[in-house]
Write a sequence for this structure.
């Protein structure tokens, strides 16, 4: 009898230990899953090809007319007779275009005649007709090259900036498109205060005090964004000095960039920046 009781006790103890081990094993698996999820950090967003990530949120603090052209979209401001912004997606393939640079500027037929700036409105002003969406990004299409020479895509820009630091940034963006496969770009003028220098013959055009550019890459596992601001002056301005976070650029411009990203990704890529991550010198 005693032997039977002893065997029963041993069986009960063995069953209890087995149950504990089974629970511990399940708990350990749950912990491992949690650790694995945490170790991955932020998830990469799923890129939706139907979304134009380069387009900012609608502007409520200034006049705008959205105009779509081949290769880019712009927001036109009839108070300044310049764009609020021009935005486009640039891919690695598009940087290899062979279309020759257009040699003529055009009045934009999509802008009403009262505000339709023509090439001669800049004549004698001392300012370049500065592209916002640059010709160098539109070499992939005859139509895109033609359309980027619409005057609605131009701003009065100091020649030293247009042919210097701004040009260097445009060239860097083409290299980044090659490195990242696809980037999303938006740029435009910055007007400070209420009074601006003015030029024009048949139309009055306000001269901006500066220019901005924001760039986004959604390369999986390496999502990032960066902003830039350059004074509209003939002073030398380095890319390092001009660079800033997109959050800071939004505060400067009053424009909500890359708003179609999910909140987690938008907050993550816009809150900080690193030129080194873009392989920029």
């Amino acid at each position: 009898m005693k032997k039977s009781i002893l065997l029963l006790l041993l069986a009960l103890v063995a069953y209890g230990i087995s149950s504990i081990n089974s629970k511990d094993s399940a708990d350990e698996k749950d912990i491992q899953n949690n650790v694995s999820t945490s170790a991955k950090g932020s998830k990469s967003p799923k890129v939706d090809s139907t979304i134009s990530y380069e387009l900012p949120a609608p502007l409520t603090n200034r006049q705008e007319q959205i105009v779509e052209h081949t290769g880019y979209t712009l927001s036109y401001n009839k108070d300044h007779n310049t764009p609020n912004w021009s935005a486009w997606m640039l891919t690695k393939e598009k940087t290899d275009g062979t279309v020759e640079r257009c040699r003529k500027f055009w009045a934009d037929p999509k802008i009403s005649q009262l505000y339709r700036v023509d090439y001669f409105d800049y004549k004698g002003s001392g300012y370049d007709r500065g592209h916002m969406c640059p010709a160098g990004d539109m070499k992939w299409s005859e139509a895109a090259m033609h359309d980027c020479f619409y005057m609605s895509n131009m701003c009065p820009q100091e020649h030293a900036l247009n042919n210097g630091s701004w040009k260097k940034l445009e060239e860097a963006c083409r290299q980044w498109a090659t490195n990242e496969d696809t980037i999303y770009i938006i740029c435009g003028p910055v007007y400070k205060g209420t009074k601006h220098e003015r030029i024009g013959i048949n139309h009055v055009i306000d001269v901006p005090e500066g220019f901005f550019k924001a760039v986004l890459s959604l390369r999986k596992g390496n999502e990032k964004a960066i902003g830039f601001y350059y004074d509209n002056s003939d002073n030398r301005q380095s890319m390092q000095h001009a660079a800033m976070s997109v959050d800071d650029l939004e505060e400067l411009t009053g424009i909500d960039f890359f708003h179609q990203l999910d909140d987690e990704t938008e907050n993550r890529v816009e809150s900080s920046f690193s030129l080194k991550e873009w392989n920029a010198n």
Observations:
- Confidence is low (pLDDT under 50) at residues 1-10, 17-40.
- The chain has seven helices and eleven strands.
- The helical segments are 2-40, 142-147, 159-162, 165-180, 239-242, 246-253, 263-270.
